[in-house]
Amino acid sequence: MRALILTGVKQPLELMDRTPAELAPGEVIVELRIAALNRRDYWITQGMYPGIEPPVILGSDGAGVVAVCGEGVDSSWIGREVIINPGLNWGSNESAQADSFSILGLPRDGTFATHVSIPATQLHEKPGHLSWEEAAALPLAGVTAHRALFAQGGLRTGESVLITGIGGGVATMALQMAVASGADVWVTSSSLDKIERAKGIGAKGGFLYTENDWTKRFRGDAGAANLIVDSAGGAGYKSLIDVAAPGGRIVNYGATTGPPESIDLFKVFWKQLRLQGSTMGSPSDFTAMMKLVTHHKIRPLIDRVIPLEQGNEAVAMMKSSPQFGKIVLAIS
Amino acid sequence: MRALILTGVKQPLELMDRTPAELAPGEVIVELRIAALNRRDYWITQGMYPGIEPPVILGSDGAGVVAVCGEGVDSSWIGREVIINPGLNWGSNESAQADSFSILGLPRDGTFATHVSIPATQLHEKPGHLSWEEAAALPLAGVTAHRALFAQGGLRTGESVLITGIGGGVATMALQMAVASGADVWVTSSSLDKIERAKGIGAKGGFLYTENDWTKRFRGDAGAANLIVDSAGGAGYKSLIDVAAPGGRIVNYGATTGPPESIDLFKVFWKQLRLQGSTMGSPSDFTAMMKLVTHHKIRPLIDRVIPLEQGNEAVAMMKSSPQFGKIVLAIS
Questions:
Q1: Mean pLDDT across the stretch B222-235?
Q2: Cα gap A215→A211, rounded to integer Å
Q3: Could you tell me the sign of the dihedral formed by the alpha carbons of B281, B287, B290, B296, in that order?
Q4: What is the pLDDT of residue B241?
Q5: Is the ipTM here above 0.85?
Q6: CATH code, A2-138+300-330
Q7: How confident is the model at residue A117 (pLDDT cuts 50, 70, 90)?
Q8: What CATH number has the domain spanning B144-277?
Q9: Which of A173, A294, B162, B189 shows the smallest number of beta carbons within 10 Å?
Q10: Residues forming beta bridges with residue A15, ordered by sequence position
């Protein structure tokens, strides 16, 4: 097999031939068609993640065809088109992952490779309406967006949703899922172009968070947000508390601009707000996400397709996030 | 009727005779036996509350006997022993109070009086196991504690609960309700005496939050808290995020020491924490609270009984909170 391997932090990934690891009972080997990138991959290359032990094959997202079944796996899997749930060993508590939880692509070898071994319990049938690119783009962003909106955000039909920093994989998936679920969805961005593209896939409108008075205009156009999905935190978090409706929820699956400045707890308790942390998702979240995507024929947005050989360029793009939708790697 | 009246902020309340207001359709007059104090009463006397328009009779909590029924009220109420739900016009949204919501005792004349008029829909039968003092102590603290624990905190049997700053009416009610519901309950205080008293009513143990390493000792003794009920906020809030279990909830019904310092959103999303604001409760919360109190024969703690005539001394005690349980006013 060929794989893009992290041999040390702050070094380019190296494309190498590698002998596949011994297949454990219950595992399969998937011959990958497409892998997809996540910001996590960039952070790992920069050493900004716990437990980095090179050499390791990065990559959490992938779709392909089952090539080999290990001991105890039903051989009817062979030849089937699958996508992989990259969340391993969530544990039995739906509210939070166990200490044993890990994500494919560190420490376990991931999907930036021609082949990946994975427990068969992580496999899901590739939905028929998705291309290989779309199927590979779905798992990590899809389950993160779904958990943020539903299990943690408690989204109900007809509610008003605000998704901040539209453009990344999770944010665009959340936009598509919320629109499909009958919500009125608004977005923020620092780019008018991204706001226009968000409107093209169902957003009611958008606001430049770089403009000081965007919350006023949000109130005028949208009223208040029942659910806000944010991954920025930082100085802008204060505005989210202001535009949240009474009884509203603000779900964070990241804090890319750092922790928020002091939070006005008086507003939080008087408005009965819920500030909810969220990350990835349980096997139940993944199954529910697959069902929603299949039912509504949601197709993840692909920003660009890059050959595996140029994987380092793809990883570098995750730093500044110019994309709208997912960047994927063509394996073969 | 005689009443303790706020005639201006930062002035002593004045005990005066007053002509009762005209009884509106749907309302009753309750002849009060006992009223109870809340910190809200102190804040109002200090002008630290919106919409203060003297003269007004303060007091949110009261229990007594129905003396007069207005038009449209079933006359079988007459002579019945009742407690009053002080939350008016919550609205139709269980998640948060409507703008129309108000609390008895401002702007509507309250319970520091021999008589109070109130819509009959606010009446609840006084549970048989409660004394008049206990019945009057129950409403505002009881519904606030119940909503914090259940509707907002999602308490489940067998969970571990931490109640900070034990001693006040809401905190002691929350302790009693959580213990009755089968939770392992821990407390914090700045007073060893209050911790001992909390253990006397079912707390597993307590910690002096004035000691820097209390979170370490909490981890050693209690592990982690699934649910934390706090009304302090401020610098100590950081520690609550540290001792919360993965998937845990931190419910705030106040922020007496001000807003927290910057919140570590990374811990919040990685631990999938829920930071939940809460205040008072809906009519459903009140009914559920009454059911729990009746079923488990919970008796609110009475710190002391003060005659209505000495109401100003009672209000002054709400400033420094030396009490353990509620301070009540004997009306007659």
A1: 96
A2: 9
A3: negative
A4: 97
A5: yes
A6: 3.90.180.10
A7: very high
A8: 3.40.50.720
A9: A294
A10: A4
